Amino acid sequence: MTDHNYESGRLNLPFVGISTFAKKTYQGDWDNIEADVAILGAPYDFGTQFRAGARFGPRGVREASTLFSFGHGGAYDHEDDATYLDEDVRIVDIGDADIIHTDTEQSHKNIQYGVKKILDSKALPVVIGGDHSVNIPIINAFSDEAPFHIIQIDAHLDFVDIRHGVKYGHGNPMRRAIEKPYVTGLTQIGIRNVSSTAREGYVDARTMGSDIISVRQQRKLGAIKTIERISGNKKVYVTIDIDAFCPSIAPGTGTPSHGGFLYYEVLEMLQEISKKHEVIGIDLVEVAPDYDQSGSTSILAAQLLMNFIGFIFHNK
Fold it and tell me: Residue 3: its pLDDT value, please?
């Protein structure tokens, strides 16, 4: 009889099992979230002005994340000589907020409820959208938290006030955020080309405390100097729209905008944010998997989130 000398337990390859985020434990009891990080899906895309499909973003990013679940006790980065996301970082996936078709108000309330449960548990909320309007209920959930700064990485300013009566679509979230007394300011990075916001929106954004940086301006500054524009040591919330990236590497989104970032340009900013500031929440939105049959957009999103979470806890 051949001795195969099996290691104990299961090999658990990426294509085996159930697709929770990074194959972490599913916690369906939101009153018992005992973790450092809690993943929440927000599969809502009724706020879109062009192509829908981001409702499948949480499912797509979760499936892609299983690629990075097969490892050896964390993710070793030879350039940093550091192991990120070791077993000491407790991550749970709490599933999705319930979405009621055509009902923005109740769907947003359900997202807000999930984020508030995460905050009450003292875990770091990481929300996978959904379109960018899901940021509105997320920020609402922080009403009892200490004041914080928002860093937005995005192609579009998303600073529309009201357009044809719409206040809670995916062109409105940063305007709704800056209205909150507990949001101290905005840094909006990657904004370019024809945006979702007219000129007066840019004037309003700057007047209300926003620093707007295009892709070309960021490339001249570099990652470190870009993040140095956010003075002091702040509590920061980071919202990432996948269309911040060039559609040549991230075509799976509803409103692609050419001229965007490449992977390391964003990753290096996130690493710098984790060194200089306290990250209190993250969302990654607008992944619409059906527009990218290769799956690379979902893989990019999953890889970005896992690295960012790793940076945050490593740099604590």
Answer: 46
